[in-house]
Model the fold of this input.
Amino acid sequence: MDAKQMLEDMADLESRIAMIYERFAAQFHDAADVSDLWASMSREEVHHADLLSHAAGVTGHAPVDPSLVEHVGKLQSVVVRYEGEQVKIVHLQDALEATINLEEAEEDHLHAHLIQLGDAARALVDDPTMQHRLRGVLEHAVKLFGTVALQQRMTQRRFHDES
Done:
């Protein structure tokens, strides 16, 4: 696999995550605060997909380290899981947990490895619009609406800089 294809695959995954968040926003529209959060997160993911697609358009066909392919494959597995399970999710707390799982997988298996894709992706690493600015709001939503177990999990792993 080459860098161009990898960036295109990453953009596709960001778009698919956006769709999951859109469905959660519609499904839990009665919980307006969280529904609005998912709608905003969806827009953020679409923007990230656009940035990755643009980077794919200007990058070369250099081969990609197999470990990066493996990482993106792990993210894809999480996305596929929630695309399939989303119809079974009926409780707000379960949707929040799915969101946390998606955000963790995205951070661990996509954003943490962008730098490996050369100059086109290097610019994305430093691009503030590529950041997940809503993760602090997500943490707050988990504090308000999440299960105790999910709240404890959030205290162990922070998504945003607290400085």
